[in-house]
Amino acid sequence: MKSVHLPSLQLDDKVVLVTGASRGIGAGLCEALAASGATVAVTARRIDDAQAVVDPISDAGGQALAYSLDVTDLDSIQGAVDSVISDHGHLDVLVANAGLGFNAPALEVTEEHWDQMMDVNLKGLFFTAQTCARHMVERGSGRIVAMSSQASLVGIPNHVAYSASKGGVNQLVRVLALEWGPRGVNVNGVAPTFIYTPGTAERLDDPVFLKSVVDRIPVGHVGQIKDVAGAVIYLASEAGTMVNGTILSVDGGWTAQ
Ligand SMILES: NC(=O)c1ccc[n+]([C@@H]2O[C@H](COP(=O)([O-])OP(=O)(O)OC[C@H]3O[C@@H](n4cnc5c(N)ncnc54)[C@H](O)[C@@H]3O)[C@@H](O)[C@H]2O)c1
After folding, report:
1. Is the CB of 224 within 6 Å of ligand 1?
2. What is the pTM of this model?
3. Which helix or strand (DSSP H or E) is residue 161 part of?
4. For a pocket test of ligand 1, which of 78, 100, 118 has the largest count of ligand atoms closer than 8 A to its C-beta?
5. Of 155, 77, 167, nearest to 121 (Cα)?
6. What residues are paired with 42 via a beta bridge?
7. Using CA positions, which residue lies closest to atom 42 of ligand 1?
8. 5 CA to middle of ligand 1, Å?
9. Which of 104, 137, 199, 209 has a CA 20 to 30 Å removed from the CA of 222?
């Protein structure tokens, strides 16, 4: 067969910063990114939590370092990004994963609840992206993957603040893709359905709730962290070179209905 250039999904020589990596999807993404060859900057609000994710990656032969980063604190974002660039020479990919996910009926949402959600999911994500993009735009190269949700695309009862924050993430992705795409920085979002993580386990372990969720997922099961990792690695890799301004659903078809 004539040789064909298959676009690579490997991330060798790429430095990838992941926010909210202390547990759940963020921690799993760090493992998957390291297994794909990336050098991973594992960030969490507490450095000890980041280090706990780094240790097994290092033990398995992967490249990872721990940093403290709180997405609601602009000095903390700048400090972490400066440290990553100083330690590794450059930063290629941001995976803006940090997020809050509590839910409540709209009539019971408080101002505090609303502000917390927006501060982390939307404002925090934007200023992390802006800080990383200053470096990436100067280099003329970079990728930003923002963690959205299926709740950004369809209405789900009791998710009003969460949905509004993630809908904001999608619009942020589209605008940044137009501004930074021409300068070498692709910006995309990933919109998962329910993923089994420590944060969702309590609800998904309830068979009644699980059935109500699975009934809405055409493939017939909830997602796993590796499903999200596949999308993130694709968008971060050579294979995703032409993808910019897209919200990639990883939802088994929930939002196709
Ligand atoms: N699990 C799901 O079903 C699901 C579905 C769709 C989208 N998502 C999104 O995926 C992302 C990860 O979700 P998860 O299920 O792993 O949740 P999780 O609660 O297990 O993890 C969220 C992470 O964000 C961190 N975080 C919170 N506030 C922060 C701050 N101020 N600064 C830095 N980090 C902070 C937490 O410490 C934690 O590590 C979130 O953005 C979430 O909205 C999750």
Report:
1. no
2. 0.98
3. helix 160-180
4. 100
5. 167
6. 18, 66
7. 99
8. 36
9. 104
Residue with tokens 């809405």: 216
43, amino acid identity: T
162 tagged catalytic: yes
Per-residue model confidence as pLDDT tens digits over 95-117: 999 999 889 999 999 999 999 99
Element (H, E) at 60: none
Collapsing DSSP to helix, strand or coil, 247 comes out as: strand
* Ligand 1 close to Cβ of residue 192 (< 6 A): yes
Token pair 């609601």 in the structure block, residue: 72
Instruction: List Cβ<8 Å contacts ≥24 apart for 2-9.
Output: 7/237, 7/238, 7/239, 7/241, 8/237, 8/238, 8/239, 9/36, 9/233, 9/234, 9/237, 9/238, 9/239
pLDDT digits (tens, 9 = 90+) for 162-207: 999 999 999 999 999 999 999 999 999 999 999 999 889 999 999 9
Radius of gyration of the chain (CA): 18
The residue whose CA is least distant from atom 21 of ligand 1 is 24
User: For ligand 1, what atom is nearest to the CA of residue 101?
Assistant: 43
Ligand 1 centroid to Cα of residue 4, in Å, is: 39
* Token couple for 33: 């990114």
What domains lie within the chain, and their CATH numbers? Answer: 15-194+224-249 (3.40.50.720)
Give the residue among 186, 184, 81, 187 at the shortest CA–CA distance from 138: 184
